[in-house]
TrEMBL record:
Biased composition, class Low complexity, residue ranges: 264-277
Protein name: Transcription factor
Occurrences of domain Myb-like (ranges): 9-61, 62-112
Organism: Arachis hypogaea (Peanut)
Domain of life: Eukaryota
Species lineage: Eukaryota, Viridiplantae, Streptophyta, Embryophyta, Tracheophyta
Region described as Disordered: spans on this chain: 264-290
Amino acid sequence: MGRTPCCEKNGLKKGPWTPEEDQKLVDYIHKHGYGNWRTLPKNAGLQRCGKSCRLRWTNYLRPDIKRGRFSLEEEETIIHLHSILGNKWSAIASRLPGRTDNEIKNYWNTHIRKRLLRMGIDPVTHSPRLDLLDLSSLFGSSISHINNNMQHHLNPELLKLATSLFSHTNSLDNSHNQIISSDVSLSFPQANFLESNNNVDSAYPSNLMNTSDYWHADNNNIGIASTSSPCYVTDQLPTSYYYNNNSNNYYCHHASLVDPPMSETSTFHSNNSSSNTYVNGNNSSTEDERESYVSTNNSVLRFEIPDMLDVNAFV
DNA sequence: AAGCCCCGCAACCGCACGTAG
DNA sequence: GCTACGTGCGGTTGCGGGGCT
C-alpha cells in the first residue's frame, strides 16, 4: 500500500538497548503513558523509532513481565494451546500471565519444537511423522519380523505410532523383543523407553514397569500396559500432559512427549495410578535426555481445557 | 588460554489489520 | 472507496555467552 515506514532509518539507533535508554523509556511511560508510539521516542528523548520502543516496552520493560525459566505448567499450557491455535503466539501469551508472545515463540522454537522433531512428532500438526523416522534402525529385526510375518495383524496407524514412540531411542536390544500375536501386543525391553544413558542406575528408576509389562495394541489403540492391567491410548497423538507439583511427576492423557525437570530423576505415570503405566525417568541434564513418552489408560482420551485456557475466543 | 562452535534470546523486519480523515 | 497511519503479529536475524576442543 505504499505506506511510509514507521521511522526514518537515518539517525535512529538500532540494536541492543542501553540501560540509559531503558531508563528514559520507563521514566517517560511512567510519567505520561505510552500514548502514541510514533511520537513517544521524540518526546522521551530517544533516538529510536516508535516500533522499537514499543517492542522494548512490551517484551522487556513492562513491569508485569515474568522473568526466568518457564515452569512446567507454562510449558504444558504452551503445548496444549499450540496444538489448538498453532503459531498464534499472542493468543497463547494471553493465557500465560507475564509472558510475552516473543518469549513464548522463542521458547517454542528453541526448546519445544526441536524436541518434538527429534521425537518424530510434527510440531505443526502435533502428529507423528513417519518420514522423520527410520523404522529399521529403530526396531531392527523386529520390524523385519513384523513386515514378514505379522503385517496382516497390524494396523498401519499402530505401526506408525509405535514408530514415533520409539523414535527417540538410539539403540535397540533385540533380544527382548517379542510379538504376542494373540492380540497384537508388542513387548519391548525397558531400554527402549530410555534415552541412551551410560548411567544405568539413573536410567532405570525403581518404579519403571517390569519386564512383564508390554505394549498392548489392538486395531485401534496402542499403549503401554502391564500384564495385570492393560491400558490403551488413542492411536492419534494430540498432546496432553501435565505436571503435578505435589508428586513432582509428569502425567499424561495421551501418548505424547513430556519434558521432565532437569537434574532430577523424574517418573511418568498415567492419570490413573492403578494402571501401572510407565514411563521414563533419568537424571540427565541435557534436553535430549529429557525426552520421553508416556502412555496411559483409556479413561482420559478427551482433551480438556480448563476455563482459563478456553481458546474458543481465539479461533 | 585461545579459538571455535553452538545455542538462546533480544531485537528487527515486513506484512496484516483496523481505523480515521 | 482510498490513503495514511498506528499497532499487532509472526518470521527471521545476529549478537553474545557458554561449552567444547
